[in-house]
Request: fold
Amino acid sequence: MLLAGTALVSFSSLLLEVALTRLFSVVLYYHFAFLAISVAMLGLGAGGVFAYLRRDWLERWELRRLASVICALSASAVVVALWVALHMRVQLTLESGNFIRLTAIYLTAAIPFFYTGLLLALVFARRGQQITQLYGADLAGGGLACLAAVPLLNTLGAPNAVICAALAMMVAAGVWADAGTWRKIAMGMSGLLLALIVVNHAQKLIDVVYAKGRFAQTGSEFAQWNAISRIEVTNSNGQYAGKWANIDSDAATFVVSADPRDPNVLSSVREQGGVSALANLLRPKGDYAIIGPGGGTDVLGAVAAGSTNVVGIEINPIIATTIMRQRYADYTHHLYGLPQVHIQVSDGRSWLRGSHEKYDVIQMTLVDTWASTAAGAFALSENNLYTVEAFSEYFDHLKSDGLITITRWEFAQPREALRVVSQALGVLRQRGLEDARKHFMVVADEEPNEKGKQVAVLVKKTPFTIEEERTVLARVQAAPSFYPLYTPYVYGRLEESAACGSLAAGDLHAGCIDASLAVLAESRKAPRETVEPFQQLIALPWHAIAGPDFSPRSNFIRDYPFNIAPVTDNAPFFFFTFKTGTALRALLTRGGLISTDWKNNLGLVILGMILAISLVAVVAFLIGPLALHPAQKTAMMPLLYFVAIGLGYILAEIALIQRFVLFLGHPTYALTVVVFLMLLSSGAGSVASKHWLQETASVRRVLVAIAGVVMVYVALLHRLLGSLVGLPFIGKLLLSALLLVPLGFLMGMPFPTGLRAMATAERTTATEWAWALNAASSVLGSVLAIVVSINFGLDATLGSAAGAYLSAMALSLYWRAPSVGQVSVESPEPVVSSLA
Reply:
């Protein structure tokens, strides 16, 4: 019962953490999804501290009965936390009321984890002689929860997954309980929770009430959860009338309803397409690869242009299959079922890497769902689509005269489309091209402003011809809202454009490349501050843009108010364009609702807020009580050992999740495989440590070995995974296990070995403190991992993990006393019950 109860508690806790991540992404914003990790670790740590401070009071109860009551209270707290999260209206503003409501969600969500931390601290303290088996059961339960989380989210949705966590905790209450009335009550409550899950799955009694500060749309025709997002289909009237698939109640994709067999419809699509359809004019019958086709707008455009081969790669199966090929197939006139349309449900870049086909056009339109995966807010699949390495792969999959078209939101002062240009320039210059001015065209759907407008960047493998530019500019002139921001033969030849004089005044002479082109471009002029950045960036030589590590060299890029330097797979945070100074100035000067301009960058502000809240909470609830407690002052340095290994573990885990996203083809797969393998193998390492590390000083060699393996991963992992991306999926799973299991096995040894050392060498009863500090370090480490990754890259995050383990090795030198092999380990607490 001891091991089963521990595993169930850990299962419930990790399942709750993952489910809250998905839930927070919908009811709050994806930036807040990261809050779940901080909430979980803080609650676990605070529970450990409480177990120590109220030890005398808690000793009045026998462990088994106490554990059962704690589990029942935790299950109840889970239901309360769910109710608060669904009913608390938090808006995207900087007002104090939102901070209060966010704090209420934070604290209520932390209570179930507090109970978990309290229970595990009690179990570890009172059953110290079984610490390796207990820690192994704890990790195994967490690993199984990770394995179960994705199927539960896919089938039941986030609210029901949260209730499943409550159910698992209530079952644990029954497992811990003595046979009798209390066990019957616990099992009866488990039955009620199971019935609630069944009824709620059918009737949606408990679902989203507020989403993004607004009432959840009550007129939706369809809503479904999965591990990636919550998709809701609604009807809209007015300018954008029709059906929309809303993603996490924020981003949306238009669901097309046009008969692709009707010539009149196809003619209308060709004549009225937006800037993303410019590629259809240039490659009317080409082969298309469309990443993130969503509701089918780009697919319909390619079909209307006459393409006989359109591959759509959509990561979300609810959109690709449930909506487009099943529930709304008739509404879409079976667009995704046409013989020339081939839909693949996968991460776009990962699928393309494994494909051997070449295309005339590779297209991405507004692929930024603002929806987190269960891996956390910053492990977004979209980030990996916009790196230099990704663009290099796109170019590899183009035919000799092919082009890439990427549509992004852009503003009066460009940043996103400008960064797309920067990425593409990096690839072109790597391939030996010195002058890239003829390889780009940039067109805006409307004049960019602070609210954001769609801008299409077209990048061609070979130079655009004058006739291709004429085709695009003719479409710009015909469309009442289009604005040219860059074309090669008008905007790209700066010295010759200057010779044309004032085009607006009609002062054209023989110095102009092509007067008719100039007239087309001048028919609708965007402001100078919007156009000039594209001209200046595209004209730069590559050696002035970035060094070998893609660090910016150009004064233009360094001095530009936004970060438009190329991003790589090592730090794939394409959307975070705010520089620190810009962000601080905006934060101090803006009030009320934050505009679209801020949405992609607000994550940095939220990250800073969470880091600040976590630091205050850790100091107030964990470090402060430890420092003030006289009995533990002499154990301070040895206890910091547990901080170091907690930091090392979470830093390595988060970096590895991001590294495996591309290899496994899906962010959810990366989360499941990495966390499951690491937790399960760490549990095995914990059990083995009792026999393999009989002398606690031997753990120092393990710590050095962990640091060494992590540094080998820094040097080789990215290239190894990239070279083997073509393996079949089962092969990828086996390789993942081969890479992760040995590391996880080693990483499972330091914690239980340290607890044994504390129980013998230090002669203190610091088990609860060690558990609390280990959890607290994970609070900070989870935030720190993202901060380091954004600023220095994933390799630096892995390097920091190695440094943390080396710090733990140094801190282990403070252990002073006989080794475990020389002193028998007795439970630091009296054994008050016998558990099977």
